[in-house]
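[[Local backbone shapes]]
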Amino acid sequence: MILAVVTGNVVSTEKHPHYEGQKILIVQPINPDGTARGKPLLAVDGVQAGPGDRVIVVDEGGSARQAVAAPDAMTIRTAICAIVDQVDIDNG
């Protein structure tokens, strides 16, 4: 699982049939303190997230397809499966 923030939407007029009816978002992986890490990813939205939301992303096909209720959509690899309300860091 990856902690990330949604940074934008992807708009497409033509797409693979597995993506029909799916919202695709740009997510930037972040550290628990909110700083960016790594490269942005494209993820299918399974929880009605939007720009600015902190989210949990799965980047493994089987889990991603389950998160968006599309078990036969073999082209889906990355999906948003939760909106994060709060991150608590225990430094103790």
Notes: The domain at 2-83 is CATH 2.40.50.220 (OB fold (Dihydrolipoamide Acetyltransferase, E2P)). Residues 56 and 82 are 5 Å apart (CA to CA).
